[in-house]
Protein: Integrase
Amino acid sequence: MAELIPFIPKATLTAAANMEAFVRMCRHDLDVYGSDLDFDAPTWDVTKFYFKRGFKGRMLLNFVEEARKQKTLPGSPVKEPFASQVKAYIRYYVGIKAPTSPPLMEIRAMRELYWAFLKSGLKPDLGAINAQLLDQAVDLADTRVPGDYGPRVGLHLRYLSTFLHEKHLAANAPVDWKHGLKWQVAKKRRLGEAAKAIREKKLPSDRALRALPTAFQLAKSPQDIISTSVMALLSCAPSRVNEIFALAADCEVQPLSEGEQGYMLRWAGSKGYPDFIKGIPAVMADVAKEAICRLRDQTDEARRIAGWYERYPDQLYLPEDCAGLRGKILTGADIEQIIGFTRPKEGQLWAQRQGIRATALVRGANGRTSRGFKFADIETAILSLLPRGFPLMDKATGLRYSEALMIVRRREFGSRRQARWRCMFDAVSYDNIMKQFHTADGIFARLGLSNPDDPITLKTHQLRHYLNTLAQRGGLSEAEIAAWSGRADVRQNTVYDHRTPEERLEQGRRREKELANVRGQRIRVNPPVSREDGQKRATHGHATEIGFCEHDFASSPCSMFMECLHCTKHVCVKGHDPQHTKRVSLALESARRSLAEAEAAMAKEYFGAEEWVRAHRGTIDRLEQLLAILLNPSVPDGTLIRLSRSGQYSLIEQAMRDHEAVTGAVLLHNHRSEAPDGLPGSDA
Structure:
């Protein structure tokens, strides 16, 4: 998106005046969604600003009272001033957040708020929102659409309310409003009839699982072969169908060493997960290989056409038997031969529908004359059908159409009456796959595996849920399941886990038995040792520049991190290293210089300088004590030097002091001598 101009409200203006200025700025000064955006239009076409794999339709933002459905008349536009305010907010919001998908849910939330105004008998105006209207909007949404729609609306209205309050755009916008609805999905996911219904909806039926491999073997037509191969790949490893749309034709990864049997695919990540190499289980490797081979065979011609247009973007691709037609006046029959139409006069009718005028009469091979069309006009019309974004098919991965696995000839998934084009290609879309498996008259019915009275349907996401549930039953760790599924957040595994309560209970019992066996067979309990024996066995944890540390890191982390000079567990052996005295002297000189700089800063009343003066003085005091002992001839070499406790707190003590300052609860005695032996604050 374009660079955003921040809106800065003026304290001297009323909320209504600030709202007018905000709408005016978003209308005239912002170029989010393009500087040529028709701000007042009830529908914004934002297709070119977003990319969605497998989607070829238009992306629209509808500022109407009721959500529009496909093939229906436009809804009534939202009334002013609410319409302009919402449009301004959406344009500003997109500039701030830069979402990767259109802000449809944000607009739905605004629509619920709009109806809350009307239900209350008020004129819709964002500047007049209050907590009661927000509550009513969420209640209306929850009543109208059961489930988690209401809470989702509430989340977006909370962000709106905070924005209006912070920007002084609504006088009565609550400071910290929250919706009071509970999320329903989490409650229904585990137990009861609701959980059972969710499992049945998310998982494929047994009939579908049995019918899919049969359909894979019976598929003969290109569209059946392609769609069943996609489903076969989704059955090999938990994946999203959009990731298959981003596969390259050479996605197979060769084994790292000769003789290795592993099979992997170069996979495109989604939803925040990076591109990665997806391993296919050995039991499904042959299925995946066959699916990739079939897809590659069925889409090879489309890649060849795409490669032509990449090399010659302004020239029409002609099949070999049409090469002699370039630059000539074309008859309707010539157009049919180039495109691939099979019905008589279809070429001439197609040219007329494109608005191409006939230029002359042409005598055909049969001696008849017919109307002719300029080759350049036909060429321009066909070139205008190149897919959106050509030559780049996938913006996220940089995949080109000529490299992609999932492209086909134009109209490959059309009806039987529609011809498959010979001179143009297209990307396989989600709708192409969905119509094969989601409908009662789809591929299962066409291949005789079901009938309309008892249909078999299968959705792409059901296979992902099924494989994740199998992985849970098989005992894979959460990290392994997330990595196999290409999932950035391990917590999302829960949504795909559809084990029954009985399965969970039985799996938990098996795990407890396994742990009990491990405890009984492999773990040895060591007898306790005395303090004296422990000291004899003790070894230092790590060396420092002037000694070594006696702390037992196996029992606890260091509580004096990077403060060895102030720690009583730090020991210096006199004479062990002749460089000790030199290092202490250099450190003392450096600390004195730092103290002088800190005192100069304190004299100038710099913030925090006083704390630095105290710290440097404490360091100098410790270094002077240590240096005096190292230089004292009466102290023999080999003496262990351990300085007495300083006034500096350990990390635990400092946390206790901070807690006391915030809450007033005393966790640490004021005098160190009062602390029990062995606890923070004692000298033990």
